[in-house]
C-alpha cells in the first residue's frame, strides 16, 4: 500500500560538510524546485541563516523521486544544523525519521559533530546512509575517509556514496540508496491518530503551525484533535506538506511528515514532543516525546526601552514555539530594570535568539554577560543554584562553590596536539586521554570547566590550530572550585548586570582587563567616570573614562552610497543597543567584555 513508497530521513553532518548544498541538489534532481527558483542553500530560508551561511533551524520538505525500479517514492527530507548549539534541532528531526544521511567531507574526514550526530541517529536505531561529499576537491581522499568512518564510527562504509554536492555528482546514487536501504514507515491507518510534534512556529493569521510526523492514523481538516500532554483540544483547519513552500493536502496519513493548523492562539498549550491524537478516539498512550534540554548558559535579556517588557514576554513566548531549547523567566536588575533570565545552549544560540527577537518582533534589546549555573554549598548545609552572578550569596554565608565541568573531545591533526594541550591547560583543563583516529589525526579528551569552554575557547582553539580542530563537549558533573564574584562599579555605583564569577587565582587580572576594556567601550560623557572592579569591599582595579571635550559624532568617510547606508544602519543598530544606567550610557558590547578576556 501507500506507505511502502514513503521514506523519511534527516541529513546530518559536521558543520560545513555540505548538508544544505546536498539538499539543494536533491530538490533540483527531483524537480521539487524549478530552475528559476533555485538558489544556493535554498532551505536556509531565514534571513539570519543566509547572512551567516549556516543552518539554524531544521527544515522538512516533501519531494517525489522516480526510482530506477519504476516506482514513485515520496521522500520527506529534513535538513539539520551542524553547530553544537543546535543539536536539539537534530535530535528532534531524527525522531521523525527511519533513516539518516550522514555527510562526511572527503577532505576533512570525520569531525567532532560527525560523531556526535551519528550517535544521536544510532540511539534512535536509524538506518545510516553514509555519503562522502566534496570529492571534487583536490585534497579529497575518499578511500581514507571510508576507512575512517569504519574505524571511528564503526559503521559499514563499503558502499558509501561518493558525491559532490557542488558539482551534482552522486545524487542519483544517493537517492537510490535512500529508497532501498532506509525502511518504509509502518503504523496502521485504522488506529487513532498518533502524531509527534517535532517543531512549531507562530503565524499571526493561522495561529500555531505544528510540524508533525504521523505514526498512526490519519488527520484532515474538520477533525477534532487533542494534544495529549497539555490536554487542550482544537478543530483542524488545514493540513499539508512543505515542498518547500506550504502545499495544502486533503489529509495526512500514517508515515507522513507535514503540518497541521487548528487556529491555536493559546501558545502556552503547545510544546514540541507532544502527541496529537483524535479528541473522540484517543491513542492508548502518548509517544515518548523529547527529553528537556538543560541550558548551558544563562543571561539577562532586557528591553532598552523599559516600557517594552510585556512585548518582550510575548515575543519570547512566540519564539519559544520555534526554538524549543529556549528557557526564560522574569528577573529584575537594579541597573537594567525588568527583563528575563534566559537559558541558552551556547553563545551562538544566545546571539541568534537576540537577533531573532529584534528582527522578527521589532524589539531593541540588551543581553547581559552570560553565566553558567553554579552550585553553592551554604554554611547552613543547604544548596543553592545560582545562574546570575549578582545573586551569589555573601562569602560569609557560603561553605563552597561548585561549577559545571564538561568532557571535551577535540579532533586535530597531530602537529597541533601541543598547541591544543597548552590551551586546555591554560583553561584549567585536566587531561584525560588521547586516541589516534588515523596516522595523522588524534582525538584529545579533556575535562574542563564549562565556563572556560563556552565563551571564546572555540575561537582560540581554531586560531591556534589554523582552523583544523573540531570540538564537541558534554556535561560531566560539578566540581568544587575556588571561585569569587567580581563586581564592577561605574561612577561609584555597582552595576549588578556587569558582575561576573572568576577563579580566585585570575580574579584580579580579570578585573584589570575588564575595567580597561570598559574604558574603551563606554562612550565619554561630559563628566569623568571612574570604572572600578571589586571583590567584596576590596577594589582590585581602577581606571577613568575622561570627560569629552567637543562633539565627537563619528563622520563617515565613504563615497559609496550603498556602503554609507549600510554603515549608518549599523551605527543606528549599535546605538540602539544601549542602556542608561544612572547617568551613564552602557552599550551592549560592555556586557560582553567579560567574554573577551582571559
Ligand atoms: P552545511 O553546513 O553542512 O549545511 O554545509 P553547506 O551546504 O552550507 O556547505 C558549506 C560550504 O561547502 C559551502 O561553501 C558549499 O558551497 C561548499 N560545498 C558543499 N558541497 C560541496 C562540494 O561537493 N564540493 C565543494 N568543493 N564544496 C562544497
Ligand atoms: Mg546547512
Automatic annotation (TrEMBL):
Record membrane topology: Peripheral membrane protein
EC primary class: hydrolase
Domain Tr-type G: 4-186
Keyword Protein biosynthesis: yes
GO MF: GTP binding; GTPase activity; ribosome binding; translation elongation factor activity
Biological processes per GO annotation: positive regulation of translation
Domain of life assignment: Bacteria
Swiss-Prot/TrEMBL keywords: Cell membrane, GTP-binding, Hydrolase, Membrane, Nucleotide-binding, Protein biosynthesis
Subcellular location: Cell membrane
Parts of the chain that traverse the membrane: none
Family: Belongs to the TRAFAC class translation factor GTPase superfamily. Classic translation factor GTPase family. LepA subfamily. Belongs to the GTP-binding elongation factor family. LepA subfamily.
Function noted in UniProt: Required for accurate and efficient protein synthesis under certain stress conditions. May act as a fidelity factor of the translation reaction, by catalyzing a one-codon backward translocation of tRNAs on improperly translocated ribosomes. Back-translocation proceeds from a post-translocation (POST) complex to a pre-translocation (PRE) complex, thus giving elongation factor G a second chance to translocate the tRNAs correctly. Binds to ribosomes in a GTP-dependent manner.
Name of this chain's protein: Elongation factor 4
Organism: Lentilactobacillus senioris DSM 24302 = JCM 17472
Native organism taxonomy: Bacteria, Bacillati, Bacillota, Bacilli, Lactobacillales
Amino acid at each position: 500500500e501507500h506507505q511502502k513508497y514513503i521514506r523519511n530521513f534527516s541529513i546530518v553532518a559536521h558543520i560545513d560538510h555540505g548538508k544544505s548544498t546536498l539538499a539543494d541538489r536533491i530538490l533540483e534532481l527531483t524537480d521539487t524546485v524549478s530552475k528559476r527558483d533555485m538558489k544556493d542553500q535554498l532551505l536556509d530560508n531565514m534571513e539570519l541563516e543566509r547572512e551567516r551561511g549556516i543552518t539554524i533551524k531544521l527544515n522538512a520538505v516533501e519531494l517525489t523521486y522516480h526510482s530506477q525500479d519504476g516506482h514513485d517514492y515520496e521522500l520527506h527530507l529534513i535538513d539539520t544544523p551542524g553547530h553544537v548549539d543546535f543539536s536539539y534541532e537534530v535530535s528532534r528531526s531524527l525522531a521523525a525519521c527511519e533513516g539518516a544521511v550522514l555527510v562526511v567531507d572527503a577532505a576533512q574526514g570525520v569531525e567532532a559533530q560527525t560523531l556526535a550526530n551519528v550517535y544521536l541517529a544510532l540511539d534512535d536505531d536509524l538506518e545510516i546512509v553514509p555519503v562522502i561529499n566534496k570529492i571534487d576537491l583536490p585534497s579529497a581522499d575518499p578511500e581514507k575517509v571510508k576507512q575512517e568512518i569504519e574505524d571511528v564510527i564503526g559503521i559499514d562504509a563499503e558502499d558509501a556514496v561518493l558525491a559532490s554536492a557542488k558539482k551534482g555528482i552522486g545524487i542519483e546514487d544517493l537517492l537510490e540508496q535512500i529508497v532501498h536501504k532506509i525502511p518504509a514507515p509502518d503504523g496502521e491507518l485504522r488506529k487513532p491518530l498518533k502524531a509527534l510534534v517535532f517543531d512549531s512556529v507562530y503565524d499571526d493569521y493561522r495561529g500555531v503551525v505544528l510540524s508533525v510526523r504521523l505514526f498512526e492514523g490519519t488527520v484532515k481538516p474538520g477533525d477534532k484533535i487533542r494534544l495529549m500532554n497539555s490536554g487542550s483540544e482544537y478543530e483542524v483547519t488545514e493540513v499539508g506538506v512543505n515542498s518547500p513552500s506550504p502545499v495544502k493536502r486533503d489529509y495526512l496519513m500514517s508515515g507522513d511528515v507535514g503540518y497541521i493548523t487548528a487556529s491555536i492562539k493559546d501558545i502556552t498549550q503547545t510544546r514540541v514532543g507532544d502527541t496529537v491524537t483524535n479528541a473522540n478516539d484517543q491513542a492508548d498512550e502518548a509517544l515518548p516525546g523529547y527529553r528537556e534540554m538543560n541550558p548551558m548558559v544563562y543571561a539577562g535579556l532586557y528591553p532598552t526601552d523599559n516600557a517594552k517588557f510585556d512585548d518582550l514576554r510575548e515575543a519570547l513566548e512566540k519564539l519559544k514555539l520555534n526554538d524549543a531549547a529556549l528557557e526564560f523567566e522574569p528577573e529584575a536588575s537594579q541597573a537594567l530594570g525588568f527583563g528575563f533570565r534566559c537559558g541558552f545552549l551556547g553563545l551562538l544560540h544566545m546571539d541568534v535568539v537576540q537577533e531573532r527577537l529584534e528582527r522578527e518582533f521589532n524589539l531593541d534589546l540588551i543581553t547581559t554577560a552570560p553565566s553558567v549555573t553554579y552550585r553553592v554549598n551554604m554554611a547552613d548545609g543547604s544548596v543553592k543554584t545560582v545562574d546570575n552572578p549578582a545573586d551569589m550569596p555573601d562569602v560569609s554565608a557560603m561553605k563552597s562553590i561548585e561549577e559545571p565541568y564538561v568532557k571535551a573531545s577535540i579532533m586535530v591533526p597531530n602537529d597541533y596536539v601541543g598547541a591544543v594541550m597548552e590551551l586546555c591547560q591554560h583553561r584549567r583543563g585536566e587531561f584525560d586521554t588521547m586516541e589516534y583516529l588515523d596516522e595523522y589525526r588524534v582525538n584529545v579528551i579533556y575535562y574542563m570547566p564549562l565556563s572556560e569552554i563556552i565563551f571564546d575557547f572555540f575561537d582560540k582553539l581554531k586560531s591556534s590550530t589554523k582552523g583544523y580542530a573540531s570540538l564537541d563537549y558534554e556535561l560531566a558533573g560539578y566540581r568544587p572550585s575556588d571561585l569569587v564574584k567580581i563586581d564592577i562599579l561605574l561612577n561609584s555605583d555597582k552595576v549588578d548586570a556587569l558582575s561576573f564569577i572568576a577563579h580566585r587565582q585570575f580574579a584580579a587580572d580579570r578585573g584589570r582587563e575588564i575595567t580597561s576594556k570598559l574604558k574603551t567601550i563606554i562612550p565619554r560623557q561630559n563628566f569623568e567616570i571612574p570604572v572600578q572592579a571589586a571583590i567584596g569591599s576590596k577594589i582590585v582595579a581602577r581606571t577613568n573614562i575622561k570627560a569629552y571635550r567637543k562633539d565627537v559624532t563619528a563622520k563617515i568617510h565613504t563615497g559609496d552610497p550603498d556602503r554609507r547606508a549600510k554603515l549608518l544602519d549599523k551605527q543606528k543598530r549599535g546605538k540602539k543597543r544601549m542602556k542608561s544606567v544612572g547617568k551613564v550610557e552602557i552599550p551592549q558590547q560592555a556586557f560582553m567584555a567579560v567574554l573577551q578576556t582571559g
